[in-house]
Amino acid sequence: MPFTIAELAERLGGEVVGDRTVQVSGLAPAERARPGDLTFAENEAYFARADQSAASAILVAGPFQSARKVLIRVPQARIAFAKVLPLFFPEPTFPPGIHPTAVVAPTAQVDPTAHVGPYCVIGERVQIGARSVLEGANHIGQDCQIGESVRLFPQVTLYPQTQLGHRVRIHAGTVVGSDGFGYVVDQGQHRKIAHIGSVIVQDDVEIGANVAIDRGALGPTVIGRGTKIDNLVQIAHNVVTGEHCLLIGQAGIAGSTRLGDYVTLAGQVGLAGHLKIGHRVIVAAQSGVMHDIPDGEKWLGSPAQPNQQTKRQIVALQHLPELLRRVDALEKQLGSGPLNRSAPAPNAAAAQGHPAGPLPEAPAH
């Protein structure tokens, strides 16, 4: 569907520089853009390429000028890009109704506007809200609650008693509500500890593909509002995340750890159990966190420590080979040679200036 530059600028709250009547019907990066496409640039290098491209218009932030292209100037080009993408590439729509191959328990309540795709299984007393979509082969356990405008991609599984808020998106292969990893040694064997809690996923959460979120042992595991979870993330029993967290690929959170709001865990971060991670904390990739982290801090390394402290240690390690060479050179100058660590240590008497050997006997009285 084509849009005029004026229409797009109005939707984005932007300013048009050039012909407002120019029409665009697609969105593409500069190197792939064709006439009729809109492209975007957020810095000088991107703008130079966009200005030389075949695109008809450029979405920009900043005081750029062009003699070739129509511009839509916005405060932040990347945000505007995210807003305009769905106009040119709308998501597929799904008709209301239940596919004939779906198995729906008689006590389940499915809103008439919801879509239940092929081979879905809906358990007893499940509630599915308005405009929600189960694309296919989804298994929804008994007593689950699914809010409005939820989208479950194929083969998502919700174990019993899972609760999803409104506008939740869960990608293919994810399992929500499986048993936590809890065992106790009993007479030499690992006895399973039953997990009878649940999982609560609040509004506007997106969960990637092949994520595992365990149910709580007694109470719930909670994913806070607006949190975004990347693929292949593991969240253990009774974890509570704050709002608007970012959990990036292959991160793992052990049981009963609590995250504040706006926490970012980069790729392959591991958090030990029963920790408290403060608000707006950032943990760098491949870090292993063993301690609580106060609000606003950046941690790095394994075991993770505050960002600057770890960086100083890394720099010091990089200088270690040169330091060893200098020590070796000094030893050669002094004629002492490398330190012989296998030599026996002097006894305590010699260390205090006494001759080696047994102490003299005390005089008789």
Task: Please explain how this structure is put together.
- This protein is of the alpha/beta class and 365 residues long.
- The chain folds into 2 domains: 3-88, 3-Layer(aba) Sandwich (Udp-n-acetylmuramoylalanyl-d-glutamate--2,6- Diaminopimelate Ligase, Chain: A, domain 1), CATH 3.40.1390; 98-307, UDP N-Acetylglucosamine Acyltransferase, domain 1 (3 Solenoid), CATH 2.160.10.10.
- The chain contains 5 helices and 39 strands.
- A 12-stranded mixed beta sheet has the order 8-11-14-17-20-25-28-30-33-36-38-39, covered by helices on one side.
- A hairpin with a 2-residue loop joins strand 22 and strand 23.
- The longest helix has 28 residues, at 307-334.
- It is flat, with a radius of gyration of 31 Å.
- The N and C termini lie far apart (115 Å).
What is this structure, in a nutshell?
By secondary structure, the chain is α/β, with parallel strands linked by helices.
Features:
365 residues; alpha/beta; Udp-n-acetylmuramoylalanyl-d-glutamate--2,6- Diaminopimelate Ligase, Chain: A, domain 1; UDP N-Acetylglucosamine Acyltransferase, domain 1; 2 domains; 12-stranded mixed beta sheet; 10-stranded parallel beta sheet; 39 strands; 17% helix; 27% strand; flat; disordered C terminus
